[in-house]
Specification:
The chain is of the alpha/beta class and about 375 residues long. Helix content is about 35%, strand content about 20%. It has 13 helices and 15 strands.
């Protein structure tokens, strides 16, 4: 059976997403044997604790908590998990709240206050296992004096449109927050806290991931973008920079037959008023650069199932994708409209994962 290049890349992408959900990652890295919770290089004797709570925040938090509850079996006394609107599912014995992402709104403030209230009710004989993933910065918030929601939302929107990377965005957010930069960790007081992390930041800097709500408390990085790339048989090759420049770099590398693999999280400087996201923008630029080439394909897809303020995960293109109006749509940051009109958009729905973006190239023999 002959599989065309675009279909080949979509199969690879969807198979990968099934392997890197938060549930799968936790089940493959955390064990429970004879009352011992085996975190990576960190065995915890649960007999030391009166209560065990499962909490979390981020786009992968519900999936991670699902895996953790399976590992713990019946050893959970409750908890609170905050996820993106539309991504939630029920967790047995654990409350799930939905909040806004990427720009916080009232639901984010409500979620932040609920998490703070939960934290202050814990005791010194409690164990809290917190599932942290990308998106937590927007999903839960409690503002410092002098800040209000309108100021926070305006700042976030301005930074997102400017093309600032996540490190710069989260640094700015910390100045407005009571939760970030260790604030939430302090609220848990004398409880024992362990933080399980699915990282969406290159190099896994704890001061950036989720804006570091737990400060210097013990963290365990369970997976990052390199985890996904290695599952594809590649070595971590993290691309950064403006989306169109990143697309040029990757297409220029596609010279010999075979599969090409990259990870990363490009930025987009928004100049137009179109609809799209960074993966769709990379894909449309790649389509223009691939124009006229045969037996090639390129896919740009998020791992969380959301690309920018759209319900698409990304797009897949080939040498025939670019039409005469492709450059006009790209200049207007309107890649979403382009792929809706001509095809190529990828829709996954919530994936339970957040490990940056995946870029795949294929050159046939």
């Amino acid at each position: 059976m002959i599989i065309d290049p675009k279909t080949r890349l979509e199969i690879i992408y969807h198979n990968l997403l099934a392997q890197i959900s938060g549930e799968e990652i936790v089940r493959s890295t955390v064990e429970f044997e004879e009352n011992i919770l085996l975190l990576p290089d960190d065995p915890i004797d649960l007999k030391r604790f009166s209560r065990i709570f499962v909490c979390g925040a981020g786009k992968a938090s519900v999936s991670m908590a699902t895996g953790l509850l399976e590992v713990l079996e019946d050893r959970c006394d409750g908890g609170l998990v905050i996820t993106k609107k539309g991504d939630s599912q029920r967790l047995f014995g654990v409350k799930v709240l939905e909040a806004a992402h990427p720009v916080p709104d009232e639901s984010s403030l409500e979620a932040g206050e609920r998490m703070l209230e939960f934290a202050t009710r814990t005791r010194s004989d409690d164990l809290v296992v917190f599932c942290l993933s990308g998106g937590a910065s927007a999903l839960m918030e409690s503002l410092r004096e002098g800040w209000n929601l309108e100021m926070l939302a305006d700042m976030t929107q301005t930074l997102l449109r400017s093309g600032a990377d996540i490190s710069a965005i989260n640094l700015a957010r910390k100045g407005a927050s009571r939760l970030k930069a260790g604030g939430l960790g302090k609220a848990f007081g004398d409880a024992t806290v362990r933080v399980l992390v699915m990282s969406d930041v290159q190099g896994n800097p704890l001061d950036v991931i989720g804006s570091n709500p737990f400060g210097s408390l013990r963290h365990h990085i369970l997976a990052d973008n390199g985890t996904a790339l290695r599952l594809l048989g590649g070595e971590p090759d993290f691309v950064t920079g403006e989306a169109q420049d990143v697309a040029r770099h990757m297409v220029d590398a596609m010279t010999e037959p075979g599969l090409y693999i990259w990870g990363g999280e490009p930025t987009v400087v928004v100049r137009g008023r179109g609809v799209g996201g960074r993966c769709q923008e990379v894909a449309l630029a790649a389509a223009i650069y691939l124009q006229g080439r045969e037996n090639v394909a390129f896919l740009a897809g998020s791992t969380d199932g959301t690309d920018g303020p759209t319900d698409l995960a990304g797009a897949v293109v080939d040498g025939d994708t670019a039409r005469e109006d492709a450059e006009r749509h790209l200049a207007a940051n309107d890649s979403g409209t382009y792929f809706d009109r001509y095809g190529g958009a990828i829709h996954t729905g919530p994936t339970g994962c957040n490990l940056n973006d995946i870029f795949l190239g294929w050159v046939g023999a």
